Amino acid sequence: FFHRNLFTRKQSARFEKQNDVGWKLFGKVPLRENSQKDPKKIQKEYEEKTGRAHRPLSPKQNVRKNLDFEPLSTTALILEDRPANLPAKPAEEAQKHRQQYEEMVVQAKKRELKEAQKRKKQLEERCKLEDSIGSAVLTWNNEILPNWETMCCSRKVRELWWQGIPPSVRGKVWSLAIGNELNITHELYDICLARAKEKWRSLSTGGAEVECEDAGFSAADREASLELIKLDISRTFPSLCIFQQGGPYHDTLHSILGAYTCYRPDVGYVQGMSFIAAVLILNLDTADAFIAFSNLLNKPCQMAFFRVDHGLMLTYFAAFEVFFEENLPKLFAHFKKNNLTPDIYLIDWIFTLYSKSLPLDLACRVWDVFCRDGEEFLFRTALGILKLFEDILTKMDFIHIAQFLTKLPEDLPSEEFFTSIAAIQMQSRNKKWAQV
């Protein structure tokens, strides 16, 4: 009897617990009974039992609720009441916090307005630039290119050239400006490429040496050149990811560099060539890029550097220093004091025609004027860079100058950059670059 009574008490207690509103909140009652009660009533009953009845918002909370603008940050917490276990804010402090919060809101609105105006200005500038490019494209296509021989040296064309050639016609203009003194044809490119592929197969299979045109050049030299091409391609514009293994232009770049080593085995492949070929590939068809590449490297300055003609390279450095001292005497003296010679920074710039050192769009603009003015503009550009950063460089020592010039800032403003180049005078004691 005792055991039965005890069991009955436990069972009835369990049922009472199940009928408790708290259990209903967690869905511990039969579906039929649960569906008869409105959720709002259950919530009200629960709040009455637990003593958490809904309290109206305080005036301060209402103020926050009615604000038109509230920044999405923790700044709004300044208006919160203190926890119940702490003394309430004094009226003066509450008013001060309210003023601070309103000031934050005003500042946030000002920042938003400023950002909106900045975005609007950028959009207007972009539209203006696109319109000017569109107009320039029509001028180049309809007036200049059809009459190239008669118009290329006119003042109007030279001024338009300085502003930058539109990307859609850049390849055509470069091809015409570089020329084809070597008379290379598309068929010659195919022959050189076929020879290069044959050599690659021969070297990869360890076959017999290729004779004739490579007389005097050992298999080890050719293999080293081939390996250097592979290595350099992977380091060419790595951020673009288009020349690396698996990229859309990997094979094209490999083909042009390989074909050139067959066309000029006396020069072979030299580090830096991959950047020049890559820029041409981005603007020209493959065969035309090879023609421009071969003719470009045949220019006196490029040939001196790529064949490592020390005597001629020193002559170029000496000429550069004449114009350096003429244009930037203070910086020239600082470089002399720190024993910083031109070869430390100029070699990399000349080898890659600035395509490795400058942002790609800026490098292409340098190429535009280089195609117009020739090697002189390469050294004028170097002086323009030194002039642009003269104030910074005069405060640096040897190590920091070398590091800075090896890796130039990536956010170079193009207009300031070309204004700096334009300020350089390429005349010393009534002598021009070629005469010096």
From TrEMBL:
Compositionally skewed regions (Basic and acidic residues) per UniProt: 32-51
GO (cellular component) term, any one: cytoplasmic vesicle
One Pfam family recorded for the sequence: RabGAP-TBC
Source taxon at top rank: Eukaryota
Residues in Rab-GAP TBC domain copies: 164-374
Keywords recorded for this protein, A-Z: Coiled coil
Residue ranges the record marks as coiled coil: 91-133
Name of the molecule in the record: TBC14 protein
GO process annotations (BP): vesicle-mediated transport
InterPro entries in UniProt: Rab-GAP-TBC_dom, Rab-GAP_TBC_sf, Rab_GAP_TBC_domain
Species in which this protein is naturally found: Sula dactylatra
Organism classification: Eukaryota, Metazoa, Chordata, Craniata, Vertebrata
GO molecular function: GTPase activator activity; small GTPase binding
Annotated stretches, region: Disordered: 32-59
Gene designation: Tbc1d14
